[in-house]
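Subject: sequence -> structure tokens, single chain

Hey, anyone have a minute? Need the predicted structure for the following. Not urgent.
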Amino acid sequence: MNKISTRYSCLVLAAVFCLLSLPASAISSGDLVISKVFYAGSTEKGGTKTYSKGQFIELFNNSDKDLDLSGLYIALVESEASTGAYTANIDATGIFVGNAALSNKVAVKQLFRIPVSAAFVLPARNSVVIANTAIDHTPLAEVGHDLSQAGFEFGDPTGAVADNEAVPNMEVVYTYLNTGKANDNVVNMLQGGDCSLMILDAKLEGKFNLETDLVFANGKETGNRYLPLNTYYALDCVDLLKVKKQSDESLQADPLRKRFAASLDAGYASVQAVTGKNGEVLYRRTAVNNDGALTLMDTNNSSQDFASAIGYGLGQFETDAVVGEPIQVVIPESGVLPFFTTSSLTGKRDSHLSIMYINGNSKNTDLTYNTYLSYSIIKQSGPCLLVGEPGEHVLYTTPAQPTVKTSGICNWATDTDERFQNGVVTTTLKNRQLYRFANEAGNLRFVRDEAFAPVYSSLTLPGEDRFYLSVTNAVANAIAPTHGATGYTDLATIKFTADVPSIITTDIGEVPAGKIHDEAVYDLCGRKLSGQPTRGIYVRGGRTFVVK
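Reply:
Had a minute. Here:
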């Protein structure tokens, strides 16, 4: 097993949720992930009886921004049908064979919500535990955890189940249980599985009706009823399936019991016990470890993203990241190097390297240069500009799902680029202008010349000349005035108007809000601000500073 990091446990077990002076950001897909699930439970201390009160779910802020989790939903998915429920119910030809009206939904048996009575801010790269019962379970279970300092609990408000008054209760939105017992309102994760889970955006509020939307299990007309939810609002989905002993004595899960379509979770995870009760915790693996600032695996495939271990602790993660080979790059004296990546990339915090993409649309008066620090996870495959201190640098491949989605007008000609064949530009490039990257004597710009478009090919233009901009006539017309032209017909040169970001240091200083000068200011993702910064941490002149 990989080494374990415990640097987050003090935050998780003390007060990871707090009201911060810095504003929290909106949550996007990939920002927040399910990092641990302890559904297997254990047996009672010194006995053989089932002990499930110590179950918990852990969430991890997989982004570089603080997130307000108030109003988010946690859903436990229906597990009654012998085959997949609704969205996962696809036949071998890819045709949906369930209720067509529910084809974009998945049925859940319980739906909980993080209270909206206060802002609950989860700092970047930290986790929070939602406990079944927020008490210390170590003296009660053969394999238990101290959950007394959990962020929330699914505790029963009637008091019939142990309830920690110091820990806020999750709001019960819907539960399929209707027994009148206290356990109706506790998350009903089966100790052997299936226990598939979803995090849903707070925007789900008002998008379902408990009076009219409830359905029976797939293919049934009686029995328990479940709530179909639109997966459009899903932030993270994890398929957790039961295992069955095979003829060769191995334990394997039945993929036909998947609850989520491949677009939500292409795989699944399982504990290695038919009935659970073995103390096994499913945990999300580490993709990047930047001096303790972790990024967890999120390839949208739980078979790859999750591992398991007995007794795995709260706030603990692998310190050994699942990374690929190092990539050596050399930045020229200009500080800008055209680069093409065939895999997701990341760097270390001390790499002093940024990754730049270029965008443009007809509503802009100039091109937009989006720059990200290299310890972001950069989208798989595509051209970009590496920006940083001249000299050697190291980047790393990573299997993690990208946190930066690249787009724009950057292009990279290859030996098989079918748009340039026999000296003729094909129809895919009609009504477009092509500008090659030029870096002669450090003069950064993009140049169109008479010989460029007809003969452009990576076979004859190596290295930096493979990088070019493909600009529509509409974009060229829009940006022409700022580059000394009247329109695309005479736009011969596009000036490189981006500032090369200053080298980021770790020095923190305080600057009064009204004392910001006209020097370029960047946020912690390396993006240049167009206006005055508000409260937060920013970079200027190679130093970070705080605006209060």
